[in-house]
Amino acid sequence: MLFNTVQYILFLFFVVLVYYLLPKKVRYIWLFAVSYYFYMQWNSQYVILLFSCTLLTYITGRAIGRLRKAEEECMGGNEAVLPGIRRRKRLCLASCILLNLCVLGYFKYFNFILYHLNSILRNVHLSEIKWGHDVILPVGISFYILQALGYLIDVYRGEMRAERNFLRYALFVSFFPQLVAGPIERSKNLLIQLYEPHSFEYENFRRGFLIILYGMFLKMVVADRAAIIVDTVYKDSAAYPGFYVAAATCFFAIQIYCDFYGYSTIARGSALLMGIRLMDNFNAPYYAGSVKEFWRRWHISLSGWFRDYMYIPLGGNRKGQVRKACNLLSVFGVSGLWHGAALSYVVWGFLNGAYQVASDAAMGARRFAVKFACKVFRGRFSEGICITAGAVDRFSRRLFRTLSTFFLVTCSWLFFRAGTLRKSFEILKNMFSANNWTILFDGSLYGLGVERNYMNVLLFSILVLFIVDYQKYKGKDVSALFLGQGWWFRVMVIMMLLFSILLYGCYGELYDVQQFIYFQF
After folding, report:
1. Peptide bond preceding 183: is omega within 30 degrees of 0, i.e. cis?
2. Which of 120, 167, 177, 465 is the most buried (most CB within 10 A)?
3. How far is CA 427 from the centre of its chain?
4. Contacts 24+ apart (CB under 8 A), 84-91
5. Over the stretch 48-89, which tens digit does the pLDDT of each residue have?
6. Structural domain boundaries of the chain?
7. What is the C-alpha end-to-end distance of the chain, expressed in Å?
8. Please, are residues 184 and 301 in contact by the beta-carbon 8 Å criterion?
9. Average pLDDT for 7-35
């Protein structure tokens, strides 16, 4: 059941209606039931996998909770048994994590491993390994396993009490708005909210409706139209060399952002209709002034998960620059592999890690140079050097840093979109095979599968996106800012969003209901 369909809107309306009609004590049972129904619309067989992951992490969480209690009771008393308790606690955590990662690895990487293993066997003239069927990746498995493991680690660290109510915990893992593609919620946010009695509030309802509408706009008007341009060029980059590829790569940067941001936005709006607040997964990432800042603003739930549960336990930045660089590359390499079983994803991950390592090295060299210059030169010249070096708030410098970051991130998106490493290098080769920059201004871009009027609407919609994102970047609550305007302005904007979704989305030329990109991860 896709968010961008009438079927989902009717489903959501029915769920919310029944939710508020039911007594508050049993609402979580209703949400649990409809969440499993929602997931079964993809593939009913894989609901067993979801339930198994939930049951395993629930039992392990309870076991760790009991061991923590025993550990606390032994503190200051019978401390001789503490090493044994802690050892069992670590064993419970490690066993559950390993088992879940093995399940994830089987479904996500088995075909990839088998393909390359057979390639090696062919090269050494040995018989290939035969496998009777393809392993199909269950939708959302990467997201709900990480969410469940995050809860388990929080219980192990003592940051969260082990949940006793199995159905409430199962709802935490399977809550339908964010089940398929996130955000990857923390137990300290979502699980606690599932205990709160949510009464109907008009403010939540109108905010939720507005957020859903904006998410639909991002997905159906911006992302799905940009996808046509990207697909046209990337399917035959030899026929569209030079700046055609560069333009298509920029459009893909917009496509993947609006596609994933659109999903997360609809998820947030859907949950808010029931009084549940999900985290905002994106915070104007393309206004970032560095790649490091970009990853603090892009897919915040996944970036935070890798930071808290992998980067910091590896040592983070506490053990010197070399160790920090290794940790960064390791985390981003794993992040790339998490996105897909292809070397191009790994390269994409390492490239984003390398950007940050290079940035740290450049920052260290810059600080050394400034200190050296301030010592060697004295007087006004020395003061001018120090002022210039620290002028990070000047508009020209902020603009340069933002454009540079966008360029670096967009270059890495090429590897993400290409699908394979061979295809990535082929597209890179075609990008530099022609110097046809004039196509950016002579109307040639109108011939990339999107008719002129629709292209103009797409460009205007991208402008709207960046205006809204600029307000978010400045720290403003955009929905509150909008709802604080006059009624005539609100009606005009809502009607514009509705008509753009209907005329250029649902019933527009060449439109077909598209899955969200992150469903494949």
Report:
1. yes
2. 177
3. 25
4. 89/64, 89/156
5. 999 999 999 999 999 998 988 887 777 766 667 777 888 898
6. 28-197, 200-282+420-521
7. 17
8. yes
9. 93
